[in-house]
Each structure stands twice: as structure tokens, then as C-alpha cells.
Amino acid sequence: MSNADSTTQGFADRVQSFVTENKRAILIGTALAVAAGGVALYASASSPPKSPGDKKDRRKKSVKPRPNDVESGSVIEEIPVENQPNFGVLTKEQLETMPSEERVKLAAALKKKGNDHYQKDSFEQAAEFYTRAINVSPTEEPVYYSNRGACYMNMKPPQFDLIIEDCDKAIALNKDYVKAINRRANALEALDRLEEALRDYTTATILDGFQNEKAAQAVERVLKKLSSAKAAEIIKTRDPHLPAYTFISAYFSAFRTRPLPPLPEEPTIADNALISALNALQVADYTHSWSFVMGALEEGLSNDTLKAEALNLRGTFKFLINDVKGAEEDLLESIKLIPSFAQSWVKIASVYMEQGNPERTFEAFEEAIKHNPNDPDIYYHRGQVHFIMNDFKQAAANYNKSTLLDDQFVFSHIQLAVAQYKEGQIANSMATFRKTLKAFPERSEPPNYYGELLLDQGRFQDAIDKFDRAIELEKTKTRQNVLPMVNKGLALFQWKQDIGAAEKCCQEALEIDPECEAAVATLAQLSLQQSKIDTAVELFKRQLELARSEPELANTLTYMYASIAQKTFLENYPERKQAFSAMAQAMVP
Ligand SMILES: *[C@@H]1O[C@H](CO)[C@@H](O)[C@H](O)[C@H]1NC(C)=O
Ligand SMILES: *[C@@H]1O[C@H](CO)[C@@H](O)[C@H](O)[C@H]1NC(C)=O
Question: What is the pTM of this model?
Fold first, then answer.
């Protein structure tokens, strides 16, 4: 596991807690609720005390509408001929000469016939009577269409296109018709028209004041289906590209530098290309490093030592472009050539972890240790795996071992402090951090991560001081790491609710490093906080380009689709904007 993994992990955690702490931002329902773990928001939002006079029982809903799902209305008068099979079938002339009140009465009677059939599960006949009611009625009645839609829903097989047509009509006549909106959502979902289904479920949830648990669950279900399908599609179709510079450099800096491999007396072009690749890596020119190593392997290297080295590097790039299978192949091949290649074993461990196989991960570490028991990288990376698995005690022991073997690697110190913190040893953690700050006065990482822990403890001023120090140290570099700037923005927001200042920090970070995913993600959340949904959606799109793995993509898509659904709601129901905000306010814990 790389250091980059743990930093992004940490960031996801922070966004998560940011989201939990700022339910209002997110309130708005669907979007963030799901990303924050789903039910939390609805759990709190869905159980305000019901007023005693509330007669509507919203829990009475099911996909197959029960008979009482069909509105009966009041029938004023019985029409004697109503049992004739062609009852209500009128010619154009008959209709035109019939007085309007007569037509209203006849339509109501036809609707009642429809209801009777519906209750007896004769859905074909029921639909026929609703059609007659529609033809006879002098006015367009949404309930006739909605009821006929219910019939189509219960036919075998259900007539989804007809349901949608009738619900379209009913909703066009009465846009607050929640029952019709939910029914159309069911049909759309069945037809896999997920974006439209999400729009309808979201609308129904909001119109119901977030009280309908079923609709809320439907929102989550459809969001999940939609996001994971879309994420898989993006991964399949997009060109493989390296992740952001910060991510790669964090990944490579999690391995100590090794000497260049010895070249034969008469090196081939391929041998020299490998050396160029490794030199490019040293100066963080990843694009060239990648193309050099690809070339070297295509040309064919002089011997197995060089070939194993090249496969290790190409496998690493494959891992970084999320080609986990390809990475596995290269790394295994490299070990086959040189079985004692500890770094390849460590990277294989990362691959197994990415594949969700901790058992093989730890076996790979054991193998690495067998060949080189004093390699500090092995223990550091094994610590990372324990850390990710929430075993902070083992993580700390491994970081400590790594530090004992070589105390010049700043991340094993930082991660030890963070593991101690997670384990609840706050005083030890703070002490480790203070020692690390002293030992690495020129590095920005110790103040940055120390600042994060201070922020977690609500020590805002201290945290901001540390972030400022980290920013200052980064300013002297040619490629500046902007994470401390984003952290400062988050701190200013959490401390003073100063959205303007927080946004400024993130924008500054993006000017320096346009690929900083943390800055984009934070800006998106801040936009949602201010109900600037359009801006948020644009930022989510940008985040999609920066996201590396499928789960990251799916997570971003969840926010994006939820935001779009809310945006659509506000466009369709501008008059409800106020009520919507009030509802949002009421959800603040
Ligand atoms: C490859 O060549 C280098 C330089 O001659 C040498 O040091 C190394 O041992 C060789 N590796 C193998 C596996 O023969
Ligand atoms: C690290 O290991 C050494 C040697 O086993 C031990 O003395 C020390 O207390 C450990 N430090 C931490 C912080 O766990």
C-alpha cells in the first residue's frame, strides 16, 4: 500500500465527517445522504412526530397498489343502465349534445365501475372503464389517468410504456400528484431508465417531506445502480492515463530510492532506455519514465536483472493506471526472474490488497521478509495494510520496525503518530508528532498531518498555524503540494463557517495544481452547502476526470446524480424553493 493510498483514504474520511457534520449542506437530501452512508440523513429526517390529525397513512404503499390505492371519489347518483356492456360508450354526437353536468356524473359512474373491477383484480376491464371515463368527462381528470396507470401496473406483464404515458398525463395535470410520480418512477426503473426514475423518486421524496421511507430507499437504490453502472462504463471506455502528479509522487515516495542496476559493458539501446526511465523517475518526470520503460521491454533487455527491474517499473505504472491485472502479471514475472526482489513482492502485496485478498497480501510480505528481513519498505507497507484494515496496534508496530531500520523516511514517523492517535493514545501520538517535526524541520508533511489531528480535536487555531507552516515550506518547491491549502480551507470552514475563505483556499490550490482532486471535491461540497447546485455539478464532472478507481468514480457519480435530481426538482417546482429550504433547516440536528 502506498502512502498515496493512505492520504486519499484520509481525505475520504475527512469529506465523510465533513458531510456528517454538515447535514444541512447536504440535507438537501438525497445527494449527500447516500454518500455519507445512506440512511443517516433519512433516519433523522424520516421520523419527525406526525401531527395527530394526519390521516394519511403513508406506509400503506406497495408496488402493487392495493384496491384502496385507487381513489374512489363520491358517486352522487346511480345510473340504471350501468350494467350494460356498452355502458358509457357514446358517439361523438351523443357526447356533444349531452349537458356538461351529465357528463361529469357519467364519468364519475364509469370511474366507480373501474374501481369495482380493480378491487376484483379485473384490471383489463377496470382500465376499459377508466378509458370510458376519460372520453366522457368534459374536463381532464388526473385521477382517471393515474388509476388507469395502476391497472397497467397490475397487468401481466405490466404495460410499462402505457403506465408512463398515463402518469405523464396525470402529472402534467397535477404536478403534486405523488402517487402518480411514484408509479411512473417504478415503471421507469423497470425499464432501466434510471436517471428519469431517480428524478421521480427524488421528487416524490421531497414532496412527501422526506417522510416516505420507501421512496427514500428507492432513491438510494437507483442512485447506487446508476452510479455503479456509469462508473464501470467510464472505466471500460476511457483511455488509460496516469493519475494526478501528487498521487504518483506520493506513491513513489513511499519507496526508498535504490541504486541503479549495473549495466553490462556494452549496453543495448533497451538497457539504456531502462536507465533513462529510472532517471526520469528520480526527477519525477513520470510520463517519460513510463514511455522509456515500455520501450525498453519491447526492445528486449540484456539480462534477467535488468528485465526484472523493468517489469517492476512497468507493473507499477500499470497499477497506477488502475490496470490491476496487468500489474499483477508484470510483477509476478519480475519475481520469477529474480525471486529475491523485495520491492516487487511488496508491490504484489498492494495488488492483492486492491483485489481484496488480505491473506495473499500478508503471504507476499512474508515472502519479501524471507528474502530481505532488513528492508524498511516492507514493514512500512505492511503497516499500511494493517492501518487500512483498522488494526492500528499492528500498524504501529510495523511503522516502528521500519523506523528502527531506517529513521530517515518521514512517512513511517507520521503514520506511527496517526496510528497511535487512531488507537486512542493521544498523548503518545502528539509526542511522536512533536519529535517528527523536530527531526524533519524542512518537510511539509509533519505539520500538515499534525494539523489534521489538531483539526480533528477542534483545536482550530493550532491546526491553521500548522497548515500555514506546511504551505510556507511547500512554497519553495518547484512542484508544490497544495493539500495543506485545502486543509486550511476546511479548517476555516469548520471553525468559522467562513465559506468564502474556504473557497479561496481551494481556488488558490487549484491555480497551483489544477489536478488536485481534494480541492475540487471540497469546492463541490461547499457549493452544495450554498445550494449552488449547478456549480457543484460542474465540479463533480471535473472530479470524475481526476478520479482514479472505480469506487472513487462511483462515489463522485452518486453525488453528481443526486445533485442533478435535486436541481431538476427545483426547476420543476420553483414555488417550493422556500419550503424546501425550510425543510432543510429543520433537518439540522
Ligand atoms: C546482468 O548484468 C549485470 C552487469 O553485467 C550483472 O551485474 C548482473 O549480475 C547480471 N544479472 C544476471 C541475472 O546475470
Ligand atoms: C519501537 O520499538 C522499540 C524496540 O522494540 C521499542 O523500544 C519502542 O518502545 C517502540 N516504540 C514505539 C513508539 O512503539
Answer: 0.74
